[in-house]
Every structure is written in structure tokens, then in C-alpha cells.
Amino acid sequence: MKDRKVFFLSGASRGIGRALADEAADRGHIVYGSSRSWTGAKPALAFHPITMDVRNDASVRAAVKEVLDEEQRIDVLVNNAGISLSGPVEETPLDAVHDLMETNYFGVVRTLQAVLPVMRRQGFGTIVNIGSAGGKIAIPFQSHYSASKFAIEGLTEALWQELHGTGLRVLLIEPGDVRTEIWDRSRHLIEEDSPYLDALVRFHKIKKRDMGDAADSPGRVAARIADLIESDTRALRHPVARLARLFILARKLLPDAIFLWAVRRAYRIDK
Ligand SMILES: NC(=O)c1ccc[n+]([C@@H]2O[C@H](COP(=O)([O-])OP(=O)(O)OC[C@H]3O[C@@H](n4cnc5c(N)ncnc54)[C@H](OP(=O)(O)O)[C@@H]3O)[C@@H](O)[C@H]2O)c1
Predict the structure, then answer these.
(1) 1 occurs within a structural domain
(2) Given the CA of residue 177, which atom of ligand 1 is nearest to it?
(3) Of ligand 1's atoms, which has the minimum distance to the CA of residue 79?
(4) Residue 263 DSSP SS3
(5) Which residues pair with 271 in a beta bridge?
(6) Residue 145 is among the residues annotated as catalytic for this protein
(7) Protein residue with least CA distance to atom 33, ligand 1
(8) What letter does residue 125 receive in the DSSP assignment?
(9) For residue 192, what are the CA distances in angstroms to 4, 81, 196, 200, 202?
(10) I want to staple 245 with a disulfide (CB 3.0 to 4.6 A). Which of 67, 95, 203, 239 is the partner?
């Protein structure tokens, strides 16, 4: 192969991260992929399993050290680890919001702060942040998830500017719906006496459908991300997965009133 890279990838135990770790290892790259639960005896995988919780400074520092001790460099950082959360803004407990932000936003910042000095010393490196189409389009009853991904959009765009001309590259991946366990594993706030109950029930049905057969496969999305990493592109934003490009384009082109109406209709907020 042309260029064997050292990958450091958060959230490689399942879903998009697992598919990308397997895909990159298959393509001959050296991959370190993390999970919070790979402690003690590690599973036999096509890549190097490491333990990391992105909510914890010491855990992130230890994982970066482990990769550097073995490989002396990190060519590609993929900030993929993430969780979801659903419920009305009014009823979602703050501890759930904190945990989501600690994972989806501060986890990315924490990992960036641990890896950027390494890449800066090297004079090269690719940062890949996994955002979401939900970071462009706010999803009702997934407000905090969307807010975390809107934050990733802002963070990554600013980072792209800050690193311009340094030899480091920043890619923001914006997946649409991908068939993983993220939705089933999410915390869902749904109270029987909620004034939002009817709309919430309709929303859950639609979400279940969107995350099922209609969604893209993690393998296809991973192959697209691996292609981008192996390419020379320096473009910031990359919508991937079925329909993501179309929805993001519609968000850009349509006036707010029309776009917001379409989203409300898609999720049957008004019945
Ligand atoms: N699936 C979609 O439709 C979709 C769409 C757009 C964007 N995305 C984004 O794509 C990324 C991956 O999502 P997915 O659908 O593949 O989810 P997933 O199947 O639930 O996998 C999530 C991964 O994140 C890891 N993780 C969760 N909390 C962590 C923490 N505190 N520290 C370290 N790792 C943690 C999990 O590992 P452990 O639990 O083993 O630690 C797991 O490997 C996320 O950022 C998500 O927001 C997904």
C-alpha cells in the first residue's frame, strides 16, 4: 500500500467506529480503536483494542500514551465516540444533558487537546470529527443531541481555520441515519403524563423506521470515510450516508419558514 497510517479512533466497539476500524485495518493501516469496556483481557480483533473513556482526562491521556509508546506517531485521529438522548427540552434532566455533552462535545475537545500537540510536533496529521446531519438540522425531541453536534460543527470549522497552513488537516463527517445501536442504547425521556406524549409517541415511531431498513449501513459509511482519509481532500465538510447530502443542501437553500415546516411535518409534530 501507498501510505500505511497510524489511526487512533474513539468508539471502536460497535457501529460506525467498529466498521471504520475494521475497514482501515483491512486496507493495511495500523489501527488503535477504543472502547470503555476493553479492560483486562482484550478481545481478538483486526485492530489494536485500547481502553478509553472520553469523559475522563487521565483515561484519554493514557490511551494517547499507549499509542505513542508503540508507534511514536499518530497520523489520523478519528473522534467518533458518541451517544444520543431523546426527550422534550422541558423534561430532560440536566444530568442526562451533562453526560451527553461530556461525551459528544467535551470528549472531542479533550481528545483533540491530547493529540494536537503530537501532530503539531510531527508537522502532519489528519483530524476526523464525526458530526451529524443533526448538527445542521435540529431534530425535535433530540435537541441536546443536535446541540452537541451543532457544537461540533462550530468547533471543527474554527479548528480548520486555526490549523490552516500547518500541514495538519481537518475533516468533518456529517452522517445521516446509519443502522447502528445508538438509538436503542439512548436514554429516552418519555413520561406518561407529559403534555408532549402524543407527539413523542409519533416521533419514536418515525425514528424507529428511520434507524431501521431506511438507514445506511455502517460498512458503506466507513468505506466512504476511509476513502476521504486516504484522499488528499482538504475540504472541511463531508455529508455521508443516504440522503444526508440532500437534507443538508435543502437546509442551506430553503427559507427557514419552509424548512422548519418540512421538519415538523416529517416528524409529525403537529399530527
Ligand atoms: N448512527 C447514526 O445514525 C449516526 C448519524 C450521525 C452521526 N452519528 C455519530 O457517529 C458516531 C458513532 O455513532 P454510532 O451510531 O456508531 O453509535 P454506537 O453504535 O452506539 O457506537 C458508539 C461508540 O461510542 C463509544 N462511546 C460511547 N460513549 C463513550 C465514552 N464516554 N468514551 C469512549 N467511547 C464511548 C462506544 O463504545 P463503548 O460503549 O464500548 O465504550 C461505541 O463504540 C457518534 O458520534 C454519532 O453521534 C451516528
Answers:
(1) no
(2) 3
(3) 45
(4) helix
(5) none
(6) yes
(7) 53
(8) E
(9) 54, 31, 9, 10, 14
(10) 239
**Residue 178: how many other CB atoms lie within 10 Å:** 23
* CA of 180 relative to ligand 1 center, distance in Å: 9
In the block, cell 451517544 appears at 83
Q: Which residues, 6+ apart, have CB-to-CB distance to 186 below 8 Å?
A: 83, 84, 85, 86
Helix, strand, coil abundance in the chain, percent, nearest 5: 50, 15, 35
Please compute the mean of the pLDDT values over residues 101-119 and round it to a whole number: 98
Task: With a cut of 80, say whether residue 242 has pLDDT above it.
Answer: no
Is the pTM for the entire model greater than 0.85? yes
Quick check: is 95 in a domain?
yes
Residue 137 belongs to a domain: yes
**Which H or E element spans position 77?**
strand 76-79
Q: Which uninterrupted H or E stretch holds 98?
A: helix 94-101
146 touches 104 (CB < 8 A): no
Identified catalytic residue from 32, 105, 145, 196: 145
CATH number, domain of 180, equals: 3.40.50.720
Q: What's the whole-number mean pLDDT along residues 166-185?
A: 96
Domain hosting 108: range is: 6-266
CA dist 169 → 57, 102, 156, 236, 262 (Å): 24, 25, 11, 9, 35
Tell me, yes or no, whether 271 lies in a domain: no
- Cα 90 to ligand 1 centroid, rounded to whole Å: 25
What is the domain count for the chain?
Answer: 1
List the residue whose alpha carbon is closest to atom 43 of ligand 1. Answer: 11
Q: What is the mean pLDDT of residues 233-249?
A: 90
What value does the mean pLDDT of the chain take?
Answer: 95
Question: CB within 6 Å of ligand 1 — which residues?
Answer: 10-17, 35-37, 52-55, 80-83, 103, 107, 130, 132, 175, 177-178, 180-182, 185
